[in-house]
Design a protein that fits this description.
heterodimer, A: mainly alpha, two-stranded antiparallel sheet, 12 helices, about 75% helix, B: alpha/beta, five-stranded mixed β-sheet, four-stranded mixed β-sheet, 20 helices
């Protein structure tokens, strides 16, 4: 018993500095910004208390809901794009030979490129006149498929999702490979003896064994796409006519372009609340699936 | 257990010291008052390697040499992040002593927030300096009969740059009226040449460069000023809808290249410079932008003119939207020796010599200076002289509230996507009413 108390003490003491910094720079500002949300404040002049008006305005603003819908498109793109693709690559690239290591690095590469650069690169790929994508389509005789990818509101939200998927496959790939390599070889051998190969082995052994990791990856994907900002801000700035507006770009534009600090703070608080709700839902959904699988 | 207590105490001490050393250099204001030494901080956005940035940084260095007992802490912040940096500093009450401000709603906010103080003393000391400014240069920085800044730039936003070669080769007449402009647009479209290059990804571009000029020609300046004050004119008036209609005309006649809402202003300038488009309506920043990126023989092909006149409009046809650009503001908390030094620094940065040096670095100023033809590029020389003969018309986003300006920006993108004019006008009106 004394040993475990000792261990706990050590844990608390070593975690304390990090926790303290985290509280000062993350947790306290969250409450601070929720508090600012109660004020009509330009960030510069005097502020006046207006109760829940900012929150009401955000929740009744059509742009806010449009940006929430756009965030949901990103969530769907991330959860059903990034994770299956990353899992698929992880299954293919689990061995450690030269070729596979090279492909792995190639897939991880976009992750180390600055997100601003990613935005700029894809901005040029999508460029309506000189962009690679349109020129490629014309080159292979699909000239009628060319489009102004970022300017046409009916497709631009999907167009901006692709760079984000591309950007973040890398880290999930690494997580999944680690999870797959952690499956005990005894289990695999036993499965082999029982005649589980190929798809069967994937369904009854591999997937259940990495499911916890997949769940964590889903949470990361959801929270990541709810706070998505940089690539889209660089590619479209939330436009044209707010068609690719995300909650984060809407918050940014209101805070820094229109000088509504109070309203912007209220939106940031709503982003946190919505994120928590979505993560809660995803937890419930994946939990049930887990029970089914088990 | 005692070991952990000691460790934790040590960790706390470390945090404490780290915190202290940060806060020490954060506030340089106080230590100046103890002796005669003044210490001032200045933030501006003349960063990077261009000519104008070099001139401004040189002026600050010369100032430090001339006043050895003044410590100047200068920070050059890139233009793109400048507004955010300044407003964050203002929210945290950590503004520098002197900082570059933009006229209009930006400075209004700081004035209303009591964050700046007048610089009238330097105008009183140097009466001949004040006379050198062009008409209206100082009005916008005047609040309650006190001047808060002197502009060191012009923001002129609606020049019509054109590719002389494309007009000559295809035998198309250069348009000086709206009808001629429409004819030129049709003619270029038939030749598969983009008539006007536009990069409206950041949505202020169409508003600032094109729509302001159209609207001023249609409604006249007076109507706009009344609408800003919401005094006998509103943005749902017929005049304003007509102005929006003219813009819609441009869009519907394919004046702009496809996907103009998806590329930015710089890309549009490149597109124009590469000879893909016959014209571009853009601001004074285009000159330095082009000078830095394209070769000299391309630059020689580019001509500059005012936007065509609109025959049925109420406004003058010879206007360029624009007005005073940024000027230096003085923090209201700066006092004593620091204030004296700060005023001297502001004067050094905006006096006649400074204005001339800035103009010679190919940047337009709001000051009556003569520049020699052989000292600057032909395009800058032509633009500078064009500006001396033209009148100024208001830039929309300088006078509108920032919310209404945002509505105009988004509304023009909406129109480019096919939205109806009335609802756009209504949104603008609603935002300006607030």
């Amino acid at each position: 018993m004394p040993n475990s108390i000792k261990l706990k003490g050590l844990l608390i003491v070593t975690l304390l500095p990090a926790l303290l910094l985290y509280s000062i720079f993350v947790i306290i500002p969250i409450f601070w910004s929720a508090y600012y949300g109660f004020f009509d404040w330009s960030g510069i002049s005097e502020s006046t208390f207006i109760g829940l008006d900012n929150y009401k305005e955000a929740l009744t603003s059509s742009i806010f809901w449009k940006s929430f819908k756009n965030n949901l498109i990103l969530v769907v793109a991330s959860v059903f794009g990034q994770i299956p693709i990353a899992l698929g690559f992880a299954l293919l690239l689990r061995k450690n030979n030269m070729m596979q290591r090279f492909v792995r690095s190639a897939i991880f590469f976009p992750m180390v490129v600055s997100t601003v650069v990613v935005g700029l690169i894809w901005g040029y790929i999508y460029h309506p006149q000189i962009g690679i994508l349109n020129q490629l389509l014309e080159g292979i005789g699909l000239g009628s498929w060319t489009n102004s990818w970022l300017a046409d509101p009916s497709i631009n939200m999907y167009a901006v999702s692709i760079p984000i998927i591309w950007n973040y496959i890398g880290p999930y790939l690494i997580i999944f490979i680690a999870a797959i390599q952690n499956i005990p070889s005894e289990v695999e051998e036993a499965a082999l003896l029982d005649g589980a190969t190929g798809f069967k082995k994937l369904k009854y052994i591999t997937l259940p064994m990495v499911w916890t990791t997949v769940k964590i990856a889903i949470i990361l994907a959801i929270s990541g796409s709810l706070k998505a900002f940089d690539q889209i801000y660089i590619m479209t700035g939330g436009g044209p006519a707010q068609s690719t507006e995300l909650m984060a770009t809407y918050m940014y534009n209101n805070t820094f372009m229109v000088y509504r600090y109070g309203y912007g703070s209220a939106i940031s608080t709503l982003i946190i609340i919505f994120s928590l709700i979505l993560i809660g839902i995803s937890q419930l959904v994946t939990k049930r699936k887990n029970d089914d699988a088990g | 257990m005692r070991k952990y207590v000691i460790i934790s105490l040590l960790l706390f001490c470390m945090l404490f010291f780290v915190g202290c050393s940060f806060s020490q250099d954060g506030d340089g204001n106080e230590d100046g008052d103890n002796n005669d030494q003044a210490s001032i901080s200045i933030w501006h956005n003349f960063s990077g390697e261009d000519l104008r940035a070099g001139v401004v940084q040189q002026i600050i260095e010369d100032f430090e040499e001339e006043y050895p007992d003044v410590v100047v802490d200068a920070q050059a912040i890139p233009v793109d992040g400048y507004r955010e940096r300044i407003s964050t500093a203002a929210a945290a009450k950590e503004l520098p002593d002197v900082f570059l401000g933009y006229p209009g709603s930006f400075t209004d906010e700081y004035y209303e927030g009591d964050l700046i103080q007048p610089i009238t003393p330097i105008f009183e000391e140097n009466p001949e300096w004040e006379e050198g400014f062009l008409d209206e240069a100082l009005d916008i920085f005047e609040y309650d009969d006190e001047l808060y800044s002197a502009p060191v730039a012009i923001s002129a936003t609606s020049f019509l740059f054109y590719n002389k070669e494309l007009f000559e080769e295809n035998d198309i007449e250069f348009p000086t009226t709206w009808t001629e402009l429409m004819e030129a647009i049709d003619a270029f479209n038939e030749l598969d040449i983009t008539p006007i290059s536009l990069g409206n990804k950041e949505p202020w571009v169409a508003q600032s460069t094109t729509f302001g000029a159209i609207a001023d020609r249609v409604t006249g300046t007076e109507w706009f000023m009344d609408a800003v004050e919401q005094d006998g004119a509103t943005f749902t008036d017929e005049e304003f809808i007509t102005a929006l209609e003219y813009f819609q005309d441009l869009v519907e006649n394919d004046a702009y290249q496809e996907g103009a809402n998806g590329i930015d202003d710089t890309q549009a300038q490149q597109y124009f410079a590469q000879g893909n488009a016959a014209m571009i309506v853009d601001g004074s920043w285009t000159i330095s932008g082009l000078a830095g990126t394209v070769s000299e023989d391309v630059l020689e092909k580019i001509g500059v003119a005012v936007f065509p006149e609109i025959e049925d409009g109420d406004g003058s046809g010879n206007t360029i939207t624009g007005g005073p650009g940024g000027g230096f503001l003085l923090n209201s908390k700066t006092e004593g020796a620091d204030k004296e030094a700060a005023l001297d620094l502001i004067y050094a940065l905006s006096d006649e010599d400074a204005q001339k040096a800035i103009a010679e670095s190919e940047s337009l100023v709001m000051y009556d200076v003569d520049i020699q033809k052989d000292e600057v590029s032909p395009l800058f020389y032509d633009t500078f002289n064009l500006l001396k003969d033209a009148e100024f018309a208001p830039v929309y986003d300088i006078y509108l509230s920032s919310e209404a300006a945002e509505e105009v920006n988004n509304g023009l993108q909406d129109i480019m996507l096919g939205s109806d004019l009335e609802s756009v006008a209504e949104n603008i009106q609603k935002a300006q009413e607030k």
